[in-house]
Amino acid sequence: MKYYLKPLSFLYTQVVGVKNSLYSRGMIRVFKAPVPVVSIGNLTVGGTGKTPITDYCLKSLVAEGKKVAVISRSYRADVASPSLVDVEHPFAARYYGDEPVLLAQSNPEVAVFVGPSKWQTAKYAISQEQFDLLIVDDGFQHRKLHRDLNIVILDATESLENYAVLPEGRARESWDGVERADVLVLSKCNLAAEADMKALESRLPKDKEILYLGYQINHLKNSGTKAVLSREELKEKNLFLVSAIARPDVFETMMRNIGEVSKRSLHYRDHHQYTAADVAHIEDEFRKSKADYLITTEKDAVKLRQLFSDSSLLWSASLEVVEQGKKGRLHELICQILR
């Protein structure tokens, strides 16, 4: 732990605390949409597995015939005003952001809106069409937009010391923030050590409903041919990984459970905007590694596939969410606010 950063973390905590206090006292005006709003967020800066959980919730809602819109911030993207994601845009991931494009591609029945401000994007979305529900991606700290259900994701593989507030740790606000949550979701439970799980559970509020989710990779999809490989077909294969995510260590751990991960594997800063030079370097390192497959995450694939001269060289690992405990409870909680 970088103890010399404690003074900066203290100042950051105070600023965030004042902001939250003003909202809690009703001293800052909040936008309330005319339809129910669900926030899926976290305490830390990325890597909790929020996007797969959002995708999981969307699929269950669409299966019930609900008309859903996703509200997301255009983080490290070019779009400058509230917009509906168009997956046919020639550089969609760069223009709208990688996670919104991934959600839009995976859920063609869902309208995904992005913009610099979530509350303004929500206002724009409901002016365009009528929806049964809005899901705010990464919305826990965006209190300007009223929400009817606050889902907070806590990564079970995250070291507890990382819940120190930025810049000392990875938390956007103090641990007390979990008190605003309606539901706590522990993610990656199947990847966490038992001692770490118990340590995390010991810190959780007793009055909150807690759900447990595991993540697994069962197959790969080819970015060019759309062919599919099962995890059984990757046993004893050498796998070259490339990613630009907050927790590349978790991705690598999951892939090591499938095959042998090349030591030449590459990872870039979270949300990195790949360039042609990056791809040339990736292809060169892949060839030198003599690995059998070049594999990336689904989030990275939406940015990388258009930069490869031969996209069939690239495979993406499909991350699947598995509920541990009562099946369908997360969907049930969301549907309760629709009644």
How are the secondary structure elements laid out?
Elements lengths: L5 H19 L12 E6 L7 H14 L4 E6 L9 E2 L7 H5 L1 H9 L4 E5 L2 H11 L4 E5 L11 E7 L27 E5 L6 H8 L7 E14 L5 E3 L7 E6 L4 H9 L3 E2 L4 E2 L8 H14 L3 E5 H7 L9 E11 L4 H8 L3
Parallel strand pairs: 1-5, 1-6, 2-4, 2-5, 6-7, 7-8, 10-11, 10-12, 10-13, 13-14
Antiparallel strand pairs: 3-4, 8-9, 8-14
Helix pairs in contact: 4-9
Instruction: Give me the CATH superfamily of the largest domain.
Output: P-loop containing nucleotide triphosphate hydrolases
Q: Radius of gyration over alpha carbons?
A: 20 Å
Name the poorly predicted regions: none
User: What's the main sheet like?
Assistant: 14 strands, mixed
Number of H- or I-type helical stretches? 10
Q: Which percent range fits the helix content?
A: 25-40%
Shape: globular
Beta fraction: 15-25%
Order of SSEs: HEHEEHHEHEEEHEEEHEEHEHEH
First and last CA, distance:
46 Å
| CATH class assignment of the largest domain | Alpha Beta
What is the total number of structural domains?
2
| Average pLDDT level | 94
The tally of strands reads: 14
